[in-house]
């Protein structure tokens, strides 16, 4: 695969990675699982269990495992066509996916702020 195609794959494959990582660690559909994992990450007796449960509450941490799944699923390698290409792809995809999630969080925060400001204006205009 030439470098141009690899770069396209890098930015494209990071989209579903960020989508899955964000959904599991932030969205309402996984709230109960996330709350359970938060409690276990704080209250488990062993360090290993606390860290394992924490992985499901942190989008950055969880994105490494999602990325590993997508690399195995797609057989994507970056720059080098052996095991080193997998390692480079892993960390590159995690980085791009987390850039995507940061942009999404920023946009989402801005939308919530605008929604709150609109509600505030509407409540003052009704008085």
Commentary on this structure:
It is a single chain. The protein is mainly alpha-helical and 127 residues long. 83% of the residues lie in helices and 0% in strands. The protein is flat and about 70 Å long. The model has no long low-confidence stretch (mean pLDDT 91). It has helices at 3-26, 31-43, 47-54, 59-74, 83-126. It has five helices and no strands. It has one domain (3-126).
Task: List unreliable stretches of 5+ residues.
Answer: none
How many domains comprise the coordinates?
1
**Average of per-residue pLDDT values:** 91
Structural class: mainly alpha
* Share of residues in helices: over 70%
Which sequence of SSEs, written as H and E, runs from N to C? HHHHH
**Continuous helix count:** 5
Largest sheet, strands/sense/barrel: none
Euclidean distance between termini CA atoms: 64 Å
Shape: flat
Oligomer description: single chain
Radius of gyration, Cα only, in angstroms?
19 Å
Strand runs, count:
0
Q: Strand portion, in percent?
A: under 5%
In short:
Helix content is 83%, strand content 0%. The protein has five helices and no strands.
Layout: helices, strands, pairs:
Layout: H1 3-26, H2 31-43, H3 47-54, H4 59-74, H5 83-126
Helix pairs in contact: 1-4, 1-5, 2-3, 4-5
